[in-house]
Amino acid sequence: MTRYAPFSLEKHPATGSRGMVVTNHPLASAAGAEIMLSGGNAIDAAAAALFALTVVEPMMVSVLGGGIMHLRLADGSHSILDCLSTAPGAASGNMFKPTTDGKLPNARAVEGRRNEIGALAVAVPGALAGWCEAIREHGRLPLASIMTPAIRLAEEGFTVTPYLADCIADCAADIAADRALAALFLPDGVPLEAGVRLVRPDFAATLRTVAVEGPSILYQGPLGDIVTTRLREAGGVMSTADLGNYATIRREPIRATYRGHEIIGPPPPASSGVHIAQMLAILEGFDIGGMGFGSPDACHLLAEVLKIAFADRAVATADPAFVDVPVERLISKTYAAERRSAILLDQAQSWGPGIAAPESADTTHVTVADAEGNVVSATQTLNGLFGACVMIEGTGLLANNYMYNFDPHPGRALSIAPGKRCFTSMAPMMVAKDGRVLHALGLPGGLRIFPSALQAIVNLIDHGMSPQEAVEAPRLWTEGGPIELEPAFTAELETALIARGHSITRVNRVAGGMNAVSFAESGLMTGAACWRADGTPVGIAGGLARAGVRFTLS
Active site includes 363? Predict the structure, then answer.
């Protein structure tokens, strides 16, 4: 494997034969492993890890958030559990006042940041409904058992990591505007520092109630009344009827082929399955592996296919209940050939959509597998860091800011409409061959998620990287403006890309902490997490004593 952008690994993978749990916090990985060791399967362990993350990674995930779970069951079937948030019934296409024309780089900017911060930014949450449905339909243990590690962490406390402390400091001004949030994360007006112990008794009490009553306590019960009352008092529009009407959706995954592999991902309103398949179909006509990782040719092609995908995404990928998404056209080899033929290897281009418009920052990820063949790749989020920066006082619940994902301009594919599902870049992806899953992966990072997942898949298939190398390798990103390059890419690459007409911006990181599980034919699993977050793989091996073994004193 030729590398024009050499990089060193900062973390090491874990291996296991009986199970693997990889999350973006060590205590969440421990929670998932605890549940699996207690007799739970991968679905139970993934849910336990997600509940734990609501405690220890509060800037990223909440019971009042949303997301996508890609489930591969022991019988070989795949399904996508869509628990994305929806626009409230009182929402409308003109509920925000845009301050730009909707073009890059500030396409979603509105007056007062009201789609980003505060109660009006909150969409109807789907996370709790989705997690509980996955447990009910495919899990093995009761909800109360699965939530035990999270409740313990909230009651007894946990040590604040430098990552959490940095996020609090970065968002201190927005956090300070909410009394309950400030009391937790800005005691005496000062951001919590790494190393201090954070206890969340209000949230522990809420989790205990949910563990006993189940999701109905939020969607049809008194907890929902508390949430909607608090939000409406602060200027929000979500109602108890919105919570009562919320429903998860089971969707068939997008399936595509790439160099003999099957690529499986979520369909719209997620961008990832469609546009990763689209980009891979275009790249299949080039010898990416032969170009070498980090070479000017390979990086130029990645940038061009990203621009093509984002141009098509802007007009076509949204909630399929509101927009007729041309999925088959977008992922077809014929359309890929059309787009590929227009790419110039020596020159950057501006790309518009190749299809007609139809009529009409921050996340977490867990990857979990068990020895029975169940695999979960789940991306969940509050959307922005600390979501809307609103805490429901007395409950410890943080509210999402999913309304920021909509286009604030009316009359477009991604515009707001009552009950419309938020579109997303989440990419809980799996790669299979001959019916056997080889890799499952995902990451946080907003608009940079599915481009980063694409690059990991290319790293694994084209560049022959190990799982650890694939998740830690330097990334690039563009949606049509400058190319963002991580530090490990060389100055020579930057010069070569500029010579082709690209504009370059250097950034410390593109998207967030990716984690992955890879599967050997022997049954051995390898878990990997990258340097961009607190990701930690926990592998499970060993097992019970051999049947019939007796210990006797001599």
Answer: yes
The rounded distance, in Å, linking the Cα atoms of 45 and 141 is: 10
- H helix intervals, 65-142: 127-138
Structure tokens at 481: 């403006």
Q: Do 44 and 21 contact (CB within 8 A), yes or no?
A: no
Report helix, strand or coil for 159: strand
Tokens of 548: 């019939």
Residue 359, pLDDT score: 35
Partnered with residue 536 across adjacent β-strands are 23
Active-site residue identified among 148, 363, 364, 424: 363
Phi-psi group of 302: left, alpha or beta (phi > 0 → left; psi -120 to 50 → alpha; rest → beta): alpha
What separation, in Å, do the N-terminal and C-terminal C-alpha atoms of the chain show?
58
Q: What is the mean pLDDT of residues 431-448?
A: 94
532 backbone dihedrals φ, ψ, rounded to 5°: -80, -5
Neighbours of 184 (CB within 10 A): 20
Using 50, 70 and 90 to split pLDDT, how confident is the model at 322? confident
Answer yes or no: is pLDDT of 320 > 80. yes
Backbone angles phi, psi at 203, to 5 degrees: -70, -35
pLDDT digits (tens, 9 = 90+) for 341-389: 999 999 999 987 765 444 334 678 999 999 999 999 999 999 889 999 9
